[in-house]
Design brief:
Two copies of one chain form a homodimer. Chain A is an alpha/beta fold. Chain A is built from 14 helices and 17 strands. Chain A folds into three domains: about 170 residues, 3-Layer(aba) Sandwich (Rossmann fold); about 150 residues, Dihydrodipicolinate Reductase, domain 2, CATH 3.30.360.10; about 80 residues, ACT domain (Alpha-Beta Plaits). In chain A, the strands form three sheets. Chain A has a nine-stranded mixed β-sheet with strand order 11-10-7-8-9-17-13-15-14, with helices on both faces. In chain A, strands 3-2-1-4-5-6 form a six-stranded parallel β-sheet, sandwiched between helices. Chain A has a two-stranded antiparallel ribbon with strand order 12-16.
Chain lengths: ~450, ~450
């Protein structure tokens, strides 16, 4: 059934796949007005043929036959939306081998197997587009690849996981503990039954891997990114942060150092309550990018969800469709740099980072404890900016003590904490949250 | 002197022109790593050959000969940065006639002569790129053209003029009157000696013209955009706004109505203090775009200045250079829609808009005045949400009275104001500021 326009084949009809079908149908008019020709969903493959997804697929061939879809001459662009690693990798490489362009939202796949996939695509002369894989509907990858292409990117600070941002916003708003808020997030569909991918920071690290490659021309470095999640935060940390004029966000952070090394990390971060990022609430995402020419920028929008993610997938389809009408692949390399410019960049070890720290100690309320803690910090050269004692316990009851440090190297802080956490009066490991003051 | 890479000719070596030369020089390394070839500034034309601009133009031909630059075979892309209308139009059309691609930051030119220029470019098969003309370094045009291309754009709310945002932020912060703050802005270089282009909203209306065309596929409509500036705002309006949980911004607003008409306007606007746009301070810009798939998005950055604007100009140069290396013009139409899709869109008259209003009356403090005002509003069907009396005067002294209305059609409010402003006890025209609650 070759027809006018460009034919799209969709592998995986889950939430985002359904969103793509909806956007292609509802916005067919405006898509055609922009392109000058239609974008046609011609074929869909999914293992589940029965479930009612509330969309009309009449005129679209829908079966389980992924190989058939890849071989179908009417399918010019393959959309991979099955998620995960193995099957997604097989579909993506299979499409590329057949000379078909690929659009994907799969950050996990690209963060781990991106090198192999982008190489295969370059050899085959096809595009692999993945705007939906970072920041959902926010056109952050295009902005790094093209809008900010004249800049040396200096820093990236991103709220890139809607689940954790929802949980953190709710913990701040309600004062409830992590488990209670997480349970509500699961009931509302903001968090998965197994939330570890989100709350342990892995999803954000996948996304940061892609941003770092595009921002700095660095080879993909997922396995090297220090990653911490949000499970250790307690209601009193939000109270203390508020008193200190700070807000807690799970940030993906990347910075270029003058010596050619890069700093990359994902962890809960305290940022000034006056910063724009601090006002990004609920399941929304935002990525702040600082370039040496443009200065500070910020890109905000829905980081997940059926239609926002589909917005990015279909934008990629439109970009490739325009190129197909000209008989070429796109001129912009998928990682923003020509492949020969991509190179491994040495990472800055966490110990070298310098910044203020939020430390929450759990100690028996005995005379001399605070002096021990302060002494250990002082011995390691860590200055104290302020001390908040959150409550009174007793000799047998532990109380939290919050200390804000002056800027110090992380290695010094870690050294002090090793000593402090071995004190008899300190009854639980100290919570250490980094503060980013430059936002 | 044909060399490797793509040759750029720059017409106009003012602030932004100098910024472009700086970015091309300082970031030559990263530009080459991204493109795979260099972008070379080969020629500059400006009337002033003497002024020391603090840049090294050795190796660049620099003279007053604009025609020679346009004819130079080494110049493949012409950057028009002279501003204004006539000379800029001549250079732009001259470059296009010679088959050269053009990059410009000139929103005034495009808002008024865009139709002619884009038509000429389409005939000649060349690109006209203008990312720098809206939002300075923010890649908002690319985001509308490509990143959000799968969406029916529903609304745009933009802070698109840094001068006015600086003045409004300072008036709010200091409580000083407009003239005092404007003078300081002029001393700091945030405002021109003749500030009317900025403070009367004309610059924002130029930019909104371009956004509206790209968002809705509408023909350019600058002369039809209702435009109000910020001169009428007084310190007490900022006090009152704060008490009401509102913040005043000069917004460019555009909305698509279901009946195919569009709503377009530039005016001071009160928005919820909790909205992200309310936190955009000083000379920064931000554009909030709502699409039917992506939902709410926001793009933030420096809206003006040497290097931020140059960031956008050089990004356009890089995009065109990539195409030149392939021997084609870019596939994306300059106004995001294929030319045959662009059509005039009827505008919604202001009278039909419905929203809450902030009304500041100036009246003699006599018994019965408030009841007259309230009566006139009531007769026109305008409900009162709250009344703030800002001070006490006397029978011979005028006092301000602030009234917040319930949502009402603007025609009803205008009708009531006509009656109220003709009352003997009302001593000055009433200030009417629209409230946007949906942000």
């Amino acid at each position: 059934m070759p027809g006018e326009g460009v034919g799209v084949g969709l592998v995986g009809l889950g939430t985002i796949g359904v969103g793509v079908a909806k956007v292609l149908e509802r916005n067919a008019g405006v898509i055609r007005e922009r392109l000058g020709f239609p974008l046609r969903l011609v074929r869909v493959a999914d293992l589940d043929l029965e479930r009612d997804r509330g969309i009309d697929l009449s005129g679209v061939r829908f079966d389980r036959d992924t190989e058939g879809l890849l071989d179908d001459p009417d399918v010019q662009i393959v959309v991979e939306l099955i998620g995960g690693y193995d099957a997604a990798r097989r579909v993506t490489l299979g499409a590329i081998e057949r000379g078909k362009h690929v659009v994907t939202a799969n950050k996990a796949l690209l963060a781990l197997h991106g090198g192999e996939i982008f190489e295969a695509a370059a050899r085959a002369g096809v595009d692999v587009a993945f705007e939906a894989s970072v920041g959902g509907g926010i056109p952050i990858l295009r902005s790094l690849r093209e809008g900010l292409s004249a800049n040396q990117i200096e820093t990236i600070h991103g709220i890139m996981n809607g689940t954790t941002n929802y949980v953190l916003t709710e913990m701040e708003r309600t004062g409830e503990p992590f488990e209670v808020v997480l349970k509500r997030a699961q009931e509302l569909g903001y968090a998965e039954a197994d939330p570890s991918f989100d709350v342990d920071g892995i999803d954000a690290a996948h996304k940061l891997t892609l941003l770092v490659a595009m921002a700095f021309g660095a080879e993909l470095t997922f396995k090297d990114i220090p990653t911490e999640g949000i499970r250790a935060l307690e209601p009193l940390d939000f109270e203390a942060a508020e008193r200190l004029g700070l807000v807690c966000k799970l940030l993906g952070i990347a910075k270029a150092h003058d010596d050619g090394r890069i700093e990359v990390r994902v962890h809960p971060t305290l940022i000034p309550a006056t910063s724009l990022l601090a006002h990004v609430e609920g399941a929304m995402n935002a990525i702040a990018v600082h370039g040496n020419a443009v200065g500070p920028t910020l890109f905000y929008g829905a980081g997940a969800g059926e239609l926002p993610t589909a917005s990015a997938v279909v934008a990629d389809l439109m970009e490739i469709a325009r190129e197909l009408q000209r008989g070429t692949a796109g001129p912009v390399p998928p990682l923003a740099y020509v492949p020969q410019s991509l190179r491994p960049k040495p990472l800055v070890p966490l110990g070298e980072l310098v910044g203020r720290a939020y430390l929450r100690f759990t100690a028996l309320d005995r005379p001399g404890v605070l002096s021990h803690i302060a002494g250990a910090l002082g011995d390691c050269g860590v200055g104290i900016e302020s001390v908040l004692q959150q409550g009174r316990g007793g000799a047998v009851e532990s109380v939290p003590v919050v200390i804000l440090t002056h800027p110090a190297p992380e290695s010094a802080i870690r050294g002090a904490l090793a000593e402090i956490d071995s004190l008899a009066d300190v009854t639980a490991p100290t919570l250490f949250v980094r503060i980013e003051d430059e936002l």
